[in-house]
Automatic annotation (TrEMBL), chain A:
InterPro entries in the cross-refs: ASHA1/2-like_C (IPR013538), START-like_dom_sf (IPR023393)
Pfam families in UniProt: AHSA1
Signal sequence segment: none
Record-stated family: Belongs to the AHA1 family.
Protein name per its UniProtKB record: ATPase
Superkingdom of this protein's organism: Bacteria
Source species: Chitinophaga flava
UniProtKB/TrEMBL annotation, chain B:
Single GO MF annotation: DNA-binding transcription factor activity
Record organism: Chitinophaga flava
UniProt xrefs under InterPro entries: ArsR-like_HTH, HTH_ArsR_DNA-bd_dom, HTH_MetalResp_TranReg, WH-like_DNA-bd_sf, WH_DNA-bd_sf
Protein name: Transcriptional regulator
Record keywords, A-Z: DNA-binding, Transcription, Transcription regulation
Record's keyword annotation contains DNA-binding: yes
Amino acid sequence: MKHNLQFDFLVDKKKNTLTIKREFLAGRELVWDCYTKSELLDKWFAPKPLTTKTKSMDFRENGHWHYAMVEPNGTEYWGWTDYLKIKPIDYYTSLDAFCDAAGVINESLPRAEWLVTFTDKGENALVETVVTYKSLSDLEAVVQMGMEQGMIATLEKLDELLSTINPR
Amino acid sequence: MRRDVFQAIADPTRRAIIALLAIQAMTPNAIAEHFDSTRQAVSKHLKILTECELVKQEHQGREIYYQLEIEKMKEIDKWLEQFRKIWENRFQQLDELLATIKKPKK
């Protein structure tokens, strides 16, 4: 299924941010639910072939989400998200971290701040995610981890790269 | 002076130059014709791209041709592609989920 849905992916290595914009074929409220309800997050958050399982979730300001991304062989990668500010169906901000099954945050791994904004685009919803790392090495460490988790992607053509960095 | 490749692609004119050079090697004059900015401005962008080792100069007779350093571009490509793929995959799953739970249109 190929849609012509907006998808922008920008890395700013100066500001250590990653900005991802994506349009979805659904109303804003429904997309908001998919981002903020654990039973729905569990169905999409971990990239294939990993799956998501929520241990606990309390979606409110100063609440959290404690979850694991699970490899097909059963290896678990635990994550922790602290919710900071929530304005329903407009935006929320959070702080993510790596942790263990007990929810003890691993301070040696980078934490990133997330600002997730939901807007209408006609009948569709547009979600903008801005992920900010403390430093460039943090950002690179996360990518490195992704590689270690066997998510190495294939090289794509140069023109596709360019269109990604600079949709014109 | 060593620069970071990401500095090179932070600027829209430089990205456009990269796109031009992706098709063929070009002289600085030919490149400058594609832009409204001055020859000097284009030269400065080319200098930065050279410092980032994204383009290299090649002398052909009396002309200088700029060409793309494909290997270096791949470095960026690889790095970004990692991340992009993860998100793309995530969003595809969300698309599927939305399609299954979408309330019928009134």
